[in-house]
Amino acid sequence: MRMEADVQEPVDESSRDADAGPPPAPWWHSPWRLLVLGAAVLFLGLAAGYAFFGGDRGSSGSTVDVGFLQDMRAHHDQAVSMAFTYLEKPASEQDPVLRSIAKTIIADQQFENGYMVGLLLDMGADPANETGQAMAWMDQPVPLERMPGMATEAQLDELQAATRAAADALFVELMAAHHEGGIHMAEHAAEHGSRADVRSLAERMAANQRGEIVDLRNALARAQP
Fold it and tell me: 1, 5, 47, 175: which sits with the fewest CB atoms below 10 Å from its CB?
């Protein structure tokens, strides 16, 4: 019995490409995947905060320690939210360096939030400020939403609506102001906190946020003509 040779039909590459559609976007372009990553980093921070405090483990915290950790958690929440808002925009319309910084802000501040929850639990304190008033521990009481550097609802709406270069510029403006407010709070905690782990955390936060302000402004200067 004679076997017939297979005949290969010519392949229309343009047709195959059209059927396949565009290549999949990188995973970090998907907001829901970023949310999952943020939740995972938050959990890791919680585990680290609850397990590795050094010599302060189990000691009660002062008013400054507890107040700083509770209020900075709320402060961080808005920074993470602004970074997610920025990253939800089309990557092709945004500066890639600024997008990278936004991802770093999400990862770092979610981890710090988890770490702060662990510290608060170790102190036997509530993990969140439920009073609606912030910064009494600094003798500068204000509503939570009016902590230094916090963006207003109108500013957040403006960031949500902004596109292209305008979104880049507004993101840098709001995040730099937010970091400056956080530095103000962290510097007070670094000087007046009673627990060494809280003082050390506050010092690192202030240093990191100073560096990110420089990075944000430098990236924007390079991106704009």
Answer: 1
